Amino acid sequence: MRLLRVDLTSGKFADQVIPKDDLLKYMGGRGLAAKILYQENKTKMDGFDPENRLIFMTGPYTGTYGSFTGFYNVTTKSPLTGAILSAHSGGHWGPMLRRTGYDGIVFFGRAPKPVYLLLTDDGAELRTAADLWGKDVFETIDTLEERHQKAKATVIGPAGERRARIAAIMNDHHRAAGRGGAGAVMGSKNLKAVVVHGTKEVPQADPDRLKESFKEATKTVKEKSAAFAKYGTSMVVGITGKAGVIPTKNLHTGYFPDFEKIGGDALIDGHFVKNMACARCPLHCGNATKAEKDYQVETEGPEYETLAMFGANLENSNLESIIMANDLCNRYGIDTISCADTVACAVDMFDKNIISEKETGGIKLSWGDHRTMVRLVEMTGKGEGFGAAIGEGSKRLAAAHGPEAEKCSMNVKGMEFPGYDPRGIQGMSLAFATSTRGACHLRATMYVAELFQGTADRFTVKGKAQPLKDLQELFTVLDCMVLCKFGARNAFANSWDNMAMLVNAATGHGYTVDGLKHVGERVWTLERLFNLREGFAKKDDTLPERLFTVPIHDGPSKGAVVNRADFESELEAYYAVWGWSPEGIPTPETIERLGLGL
Q1: Are 166 and 268 found together in one domain?
Q2: How confident is the model at residue 598 (pLDDT cuts 50, 70, 90)?
Q3: What letter would DSSP give residue 104?
């Protein structure tokens, strides 16, 4: 495995070959990047410090002949949360990086002036981005991919240039390494884009087995996942909305009576243009859509989280406005979840008379006002007026206005909530609280068993510690491979045996299921150690007070609330199954067993 190391300050490059022992222990993707970040970042370094590592990493499965191989990882210290950040994106950029002969890129330093990296079969060079600085995501990608034929570009928009802490890194126009502000770190380094074009063969131990697995996956998803292929993640609105667990009115409740107006049927029947897919994807779960009445735009998405948070969480049933907000976020390079949640936090504060038109620049905020919502998204992208405050994220926005305002920020470790109300899906209460990057639905999908499949009691957190650990280990391994989680679930049933087959066909390393589980356990524990070193502690493994004290007020989950005593008891059980102390600190025995003597 070969990495390119880029010193942006001096403009110098170096190659790094990763020892096989590190590959066996950390695999690639999220795991190897976490090890590099832990070893090379100084303790409590600011996210915008030039020496904060910004690591683009593929995994051994990326770009192979298998299915769902289009993903890559971005790891850094988050400027939004101060915790370790691992974000992922699909599309076609990751496989193209591997075809250059490199598996990852480690950036450090800060370029004196805006630049972009061009990496091809012929090597690497930094080129001026003076003509690109200030351009939006779509303009930047179009310019670079026309300039460098057959290349793929991952870029930041104006939000990242201005270091908005909710800025994303974008590729293929609408694909995002979205959460936690990785785009802001890229902007702080004066790095506008990373352009890759390679023609080399991606190494893979058993290409024939991977090709066969692609055929098997294609057959499976056609037989079992037709609805997901048609609707994509928008179908989830119907599930959470019907169950009364879609975040509504800044998580004051989980019941939104108008959920069908923003759901999959409304989106596909009224706004569908065509299906979209990442590299080597037989599922094609992405959808291009358009708005033509209240707003005029054609875009890709919105995904479920965007529908939920720009919709129900703002009491907004105007679907076209969500399509427009989604496009603006992608155009300016903004995380849709954190943006929508921060707008909801602002409306909540305005509703409580904590802020007024004086703070918002004359803008009146109210629930369900979709035109003001869209206006605020554009202001956030441009960094104008009150939009600059929204770009800082809900925790900082609220903290600037005192303790009562802080109750309006729905976050864990500084990261805003995605589209699942944990009062009615209580395995997610523990999952959100313990996630190493903050409130995240993709570190462990407890909602699948509790809500989609109905195989676990969704109204209690009791007994969820071990199932949560099992999922966190699995999903960590998927992020090390790097394998799309939708593919893992729909084509491979999240089976450890299938994961071992795929990763061994890619690497030839002969992983056993237990060996893979140890990779997941090692990487998750390493991320925990990073956060502890940065000052996080047991007190941060919690939820906003509202979720412990305010029940869902109506609908199918009426009365649901997270029982604090049960939550705290299960949190201690969770620490125990990981081999951590009652304070959530990995014990010396666990660190030694996992070979984490870093």
Answers
A1: no
A2: low
A3: E
Q: How many domains in the chain? A: 3
User: Does the CA dihedral 548-550-551-555 come out positive or negative?
Assistant: negative
Tens of pLDDT, residue by residue over 410-425, are 999 999 999 999 999 9
- How many Å apart are CA 512 and CA 504, to the nearest integer? 9
Residue 332 lies in a domain: yes
Residue range 163-214, pLDDT digits in tens: 999 999 999 999 999 999 999 999 999 999 999 999 999 999 999 999 999 9
Would residue 422 count as lying in a domain? Answer: no
Q: For residue 241, what is the domain's CATH number?
A: 1.10.569.10
Would you state the pLDDT for residue 205? 98
What whole-number distance in Å separates Cα of residue 413 and Cα of residue 535?
11
Domain boundary among 363, 383, 416: 416
Map tokens 């869902």 to a residue: 552
Reply yes or no: is the peptide bond before residue 302 cis, omega within 30 of 0. yes
Q: Tell me the residue range of the domain where 165 lies.
A: 2-197
What are the beta bridge partners of residue 7? 12, 108
CB atoms within 10 A of CB 185: 30
| Cβ contacts of 16 within 8 Å, gap of 6 or more | 2, 3, 4, 5, 106
Residue 381's identity, in one-letter code, is G
Q: Is residue 218 part of a domain?
A: no
DSSP structure class, residue 280:
T
Contact 440, 415 (CB under 8 A): yes
- What percent of the chain clears pLDDT 70, i.e. is strictly above it? 100
* Tokens (6 digits) for 273: 């243009």
* Cβ neighbours for 484, distance < 8 A, ≥ 6 positions apart: 68, 70, 71, 90, 278, 281
Is the separation of the CB atoms in 459 and 556 below 8 Å? Answer: no
CATH of the domain at 526: 1.10.599.10
Say how far apart CA 394 and CA 396 lie, in whole Å.
6
Say how far apart CA 474 and CA 550 lie, in whole Å: 33
* 431-460 mean pLDDT: 97
- Adjacent-strand bridge partners of 544: none
Residue 561 pLDDT > 80: yes
Report the pLDDT value the prediction gives residue 597, as an integer from 0 to 100. Answer: 80
**In terms of pTM, does the model score above 0.90?**
yes
CA separation for the pair 508, 505 (Å, rounded):
6
Mean pLDDT of 435-439: 97
Q: How far is CA 116 from CA 89, 133, 155, 163, 537, in A?
A: 19, 10, 9, 17, 38
Per-residue model confidence as pLDDT tens digits over 119-139: 999 999 999 999 999 999 999
Which residue is it, tokens 């004066």?
A: 190
Q: Is residue 517 part of a domain?
A: yes
